[in-house]
Amino acid sequence: MSNTVTRADFDQVMVPNYGPAGFIPVKGLGSRVWDQSGREFIDFAGGIAVNSLGHCHPQLVATLTEQASKLWHVSNVFTNEPALKLGKLLTETTFAERVFFCNSGAEANEAAFKLARKYGSDHFGPEKNQILACKNSFHGRTLFTVSVGGQPKYTEGFGPVPGGIAHFEYNDIESLKAAISDQTCAVVIEPIQGEGGVMPADKAFLEAARELCDQHNALLVFDEVQSGVGRTGSLFAYQEYGVTPDILSSAKGIGGGFPIGAMLTTEKVAKSFGIGTHGSTYGGNPLACAVAHKVLELVNEPAVLDGVRAKHQRFVDGLNAINAKYQVFKTVRGMGLLLGCVLTDAYAGRAKEFLKAAEKQGLMLLVAGLSVVRLAPSLVIEDKDIDEGLARFEAAIAELTSAQ
């Protein structure tokens, strides 16, 4: 049996729920990636906002290697030092007083939504169970989280879906006012909608959500799976806005590429998750927690966070310069190093074509829906990589537009 694999093998052995690019990355360093043939790519995708410190960051490699030689897994029948150290660091640097560890953003949100309902039932009775979320939101792929997410395409064919969930318009205070009631146990918001098109929330919208939750004894839940861990230039986006949630979900960038998720909350809310109410076999494993602790240490430095803001401007200026020539974007929006290039009507629905064109030029990009090209690079991407990547993006756009 041959150990050689190609992209064609994907179509033969994998469940067909993904449509990956035509090349297979085999090596990464910083913001550069190489495929099986040795061809180099610049990475503006960041593993979908996961590779917060790029590929194979030497301090993360050293941390993982050191922990791998000590202890991998003991389960939550026991605790472990890396989990406790990470928990302490998270409570020292955020609003949170308690932390629950899991393996992904979907699991972090699943825990958040279960905790919100349990807290509502504990304090106000079982009828306080409604979860409100934004239309066009995304909170994961479990049946519960995909139902809370406000995109019907992700629940088609999977019914019946969980009840007690309703949706309101993002950035629309009046829509939230009309939806919330004393039966609402939680209002769930992404401070920046990621999959929904890289749409930042208005500060007034988040402030109103906080006030309405307080009025109706509902918990405010921020999904910061994509916006957290330095992505906006603050450690978490809620700090950028000055609006504090009751529960926050984190994943993606917190592990720098190693799978880990976390749900952060207050002591009062956490009490509703007593022994046996929720769990995760792999959650809080020593390998993931050791790496995540090092990620947080490195990211939560003024030089890195200030660098995110500077790099944001470098990207925006470069993208706007490209657009001045080719006029393919309606706008470039986002915060920090989570950016969305909204395509003009002439190119609406064709975001994937921009990805394919970029691939030909040696550039890795993302989409956010059908009409937004998304960028979520390393928080420490070098300026030379930004400039070279933008040059490759411009070459891709030039080729794409010339074919019209």
Automatic annotation (TrEMBL):
Residues binding pyridoxal 5'-phosphate: 105-106, 138, 223-226, 281
Sorted alphabetically, the keyword list is: Amino-acid biosynthesis, Aminotransferase, Arginine biosynthesis, Cytoplasm, Pyridoxal phosphate, Transferase
The record's catalysed reaction(s) read: N(2)-acetyl-L-ornithine + 2-oxoglutarate = N-acetyl-L-glutamate 5-semialdehyde + L-glutamate
What Gene Ontology molecular-function terms does this entry list? diaminobutyrate-2-oxoglutarate transaminase activity; identical protein binding; N2-acetyl-L-ornithine:2-oxoglutarate 5-aminotransferase activity; pyridoxal phosphate binding
Its pathway is: Amino-acid biosynthesis; L-arginine biosynthesis; N(2)-acetyl-L-ornithine from L-glutamate: step 4/4; Amine and polyamine biosynthesis; ectoine biosynthesis; L-ectoine from L-aspartate 4-semialdehyde: step 1/3
State where N(2)-acetyl-L-ornithine binds.
141, 280
Q: Which family does it belong to?
A: Belongs to the class-III pyridoxal-phosphate-dependent aminotransferase family. ArgD subfamily.
Q: Read off the NCBIfam families from this record.
A: arg_catab_astC, argD, PRK01278.1, PRK05093.1, PRK12381.1
Q: What is this protein called?
A: Acetylornithine aminotransferase
Where does this protein come from, organism-wise?
Chromobacterium rhizoryzae
